[in-house]
Amino acid sequence: MTYTITPIGTARSPYKQKFGIARQPGLVSAAKACIELNPKFTADSVRGLEDFDYVWISFIFHGVLDEGWAQMVRPPRLGGKQKMGVFATRSPHRPNHLGLSLLKLERIETGKPVRLYCSGADLLDGTPIVDIKPYIPFVESKPDAASGFVSGKPVELEVVWQENIGAENLSANTKNLISQSIAQDPRPAYQNIPERIYVMNIADYEVRFQIEENRATVIDLSPTPL
Amino acid sequence: MTYTITPIGTARSPYKQKFGIARQPGLVSAAKACIELNPKFTADSVRGLEDFDYVWISFIFHGVLDEGWAQMVRPPRLGGKQKMGVFATRSPHRPNHLGLSLLKLERIETGKPVRLYCSGADLLDGTPIVDIKPYIPFVESKPDAASGFVSGKPVELEVVWQENIGAENLSANTKNLISQSIAQDPRPAYQNIPERIYVMNIADYEVRFQIEENRATVIDLSPTPL
Question: TsaA-like domain spans which residues (chains A, B) (predicted)?
């Protein structure tokens, strides 16, 4: 027995590629995403949702569908050195490729289409959304729950912007978004090569940076080629 | 574009019918469910999961698939009088019929099949499970989040057992399960008919009870006919 899932909408996100996406929702507060519902979902379908602070977004990890899944994966939190069961992780390489993100609901626009503006997003642009549910703290807030190998927020990198690369042209939010995203240390596990230049496509920019010790330096910035 | 979802396992639950299932996970701690993974998921797939207190269970509301979905629903929390957008509720009558429950993970049995023993279940027996994820408190615990029309636990009914109906033959856990389930007030919204006898099939029993004011009385108990 299988089930057919039809997306209810699509996420518009500043993350245009997998590299650089925050590894959990809420870590990059400047990452704003807009969830655009398909036309058949009217303002009625979200009535009352504006009174909730957070929403659960269920989605398909469409960017890794062709990479399949694995019984065990190497979580970045363990430096990529240790394997954990896929169901003990939030890896996208899971059966059914279902994702779940708790996003802050900033506002709802009930036009055609209905749009949910959220912050703290960790969604790739174009992500198919398959469900939206309100967050219910008395059921879902368990501050003292044990969480295995995941203990608190990861340590952030210090982010430094090289001079004369045009950072003054960025909006405050875009600069924040880039800084916060790099601070999460998007490097693949194992990699620690100070001379290596990483390229991130984010918002409408191609950003280049290097990482040495606990400091990241943004060395170049250019509009993404169309 | 649609996606095909293949269950990864099945829930074995004391709730044999929709009527009487706790309306949220965690409300009925005595409700123990066992999630049995399909044979292709080995002990590897859950390695490390035992160190988490809670698990997210994504599932299909298979009991209402044929009832379809609606843009607006009447949440029991509003007495069934007011309509809310389906995405502002946790109603099973939603597009894609995807459910999400936070269950307490009691223990894992890594035999063939792999079994996850959970408590606080709100799952119908036979529910197809489509994903399991660990609960990460630093991302997912938002104790102060506003939650619209849902404010704290619902008030529980007092549950009284009539004498001489054989309740002494029940195990402590089964008696607890029945009491806690009835205390949640499983009546459909609008109904307030003291003489009405409600019948609940739970664990291996058929339980009859009445509700007057804030008190429920269990009036009959018999093993479920095979």
Answer: 5-144
- CB distance B85–A49 less than 8 Å? yes
Closest Cα in chain A, distance from residue B205 (Å): 28
Q: Which of B10, B36, B97, B140 is best to mutate for the A interface (most A CBs within 10 A)?
A: B140
Which strand (E) or helix (H) includes residue B46?
Answer: none
Nearest to B146 among A53, A140, A143 (CB): A53
CB atoms within 10 A of CB A126: 13
Burial readout A78-108 (b: 16 or more C-beta within 10 A, e: otherwise): eeeeebbbbbbbbbbebbbbbbbbbbbbeeb
Verify whether the Cβ–Cβ distance B142 to A83 is below 8 Å.
Answer: no
Global pTM?
A: 0.95
Cβ separation of A100 and B56 shorter than 8 Å?
Answer: yes
Nearest residue in chain A measured CA to CA from B90:
A133
CA distance B206 to A91: 42
- Say if the Cβ atoms of A71 and B146 lie within 8 Å: no
Q: Which residues are within 8 A (CB) of A82 and not within 5 positions of it... i.e. 6 or more apart?
A: A74, A75, A149
Query: Is 80 exceeded by the pLDDT of residue B191?
Result: no
DSSP three-state, residue B206: strand
Cα→Cα distances B158→A29, B19, B121, Å: 45, 19, 21
Hey, are the CB atoms on A84 and B26 less than 8 Å from each other?
no
Cα gap B90→B31, rounded to integer Å: 19
* Cα distances (Å, whole numbers) of residue B128 to A75, B1, B36: 27, 23, 10
Cis peptide before A113 (omega within 30 of 0): yes
Domains of chain A: 7-138 (2.40.30.70), 156-221 (no CATH)
Summary mean pLDDT of chain B: 94
Distance from CA of B152 to the nearest CA of A (A): 5
> Using one digit for the tens of pLDDT, what is the confidence trace for B86-126?
999 999 999 999 999 999 999 999 999 999 999 999 999 99
**SS3 string of B18-42?**
CCCCCCCCCCCCCCEEEEEECCCCC
Does the structure show a pLDDT above 80 at B190? Answer: no
* Res. B77 pLDDT band, cuts 50 70 90: confident
Contacts of B138 in chain A (CB under 8 A): 147, 150-153
User: How big is the A-B interface in CB pairs under 8 Å?
Assistant: 247
Q: How far apart are CA A100 and CA A117, in angstroms?
A: 17
